[in-house]
Design a protein that fits this description.
With about 220 residues, the chain is α+β, with helices and mostly antiparallel strands. The protein is built from nine helices and six strands, in the order ββββββααααααααα. Strand 3 and strand 4 form a beta hairpin. It starts with 6 loop residues before the first strand and ends with a helix.
Length: about 220
């Protein structure tokens, strides 16, 4: 019979240590002088695990409302090994991924879910790239006359790795499909949701503004200041 008190550890996408127990992943919630209190990574689940400060199992509380997914843990560990090697080697990422995948001894289920090739998605691990991408998403809400100016501002302050992205964006979304076709800054507040419709109606009745009515001006202030 398998030991029900065996625990191990893995790392989150943000480098946080996470506890693995019986096929479930837990995050540290509330450490004390003698006990570490860990909860399942989803806030909607009440299951928890207690360990001492030496990471020895004490007890498990609560019940999960879902099945364990050990294959996801295998894939997380594989990804962490690849990330560790990428940070310390000059070998290409696809090559490192292929090598780690070959030696990982994944279960058949995990192997089925594992991507055949690694995706180099910078915004997952690079905060500056992630901020730049999110800022670009706000262009559709800016007054149209500021779109090109703000695009240039974001390009000048974004990582050099995004040069090709901005080249594509300016050609595709400023030239071929200009902002007048996708900018919604002047779009009237409309909805097909009856609950939202009542909120808007009440706002007009009380001569107040509906939620989000100043989104464009607020974004303009934030991005152009």
């Amino acid at each position: 019979m398998a030991d029900s008190t065996i625990i191990s550890f893995t790392t989150s996408n943000r480098g946080k240590r996470m506890l693995v127990y019986s096929g479930y992943v837990y995050r540290l919630k509330r450490p004390t002088v003698k006990v570490k209190y860990c909860v399942w990574q989803s806030n909607g689940c009440a299951a928890s695990v207690h360990t001492n400060t030496n990471d020895d199992f004490i007890k498990a509380n609560g019940h999960h409302r879902h099945m364990p997914a050990p294959e996801r843990i295998e894939l997380r560990d594989l990804k962490n090994k690849v990330k560790d090697r990428v940070q310390g080697e000059t070998t290409s990422v696809p090559k490192i991924y292929e090598e780690e995948l070959a030696r990982s001894n994944l279960s058949s289920v995990a192997l089925t879910l594992a991507p055949l090739t690694v995706e180099d998605i910078a915004y997952i691990d690079n905060e500056d790239t992630r901020v730049a991408c999110r800022s670009m998403m706000a262009l559709a809400l800016l007054p149209m006359e500021h779109v090109e100016e703000t695009t240039k501002l974001l390009e000048d302050n974004s990582p050099t790795e995004m040069a090709e992205f901005f080249k594509y964006f300016k050609y595709q979304w400023l030239k071929r499909v200009p902002p007048k076709y996708w900018n919604v800054a002047n779009l009237e507040f409309r909805t097909n949701n009856f609950a939202q419709e009542k909120t808007i109606y009440d706002c007009f009745e009380t001569n107040s503004s509906p939620p989000g009515s100043y989104a464009s001006s607020s974004l303009e202030i934030i991005l152009l200041k």
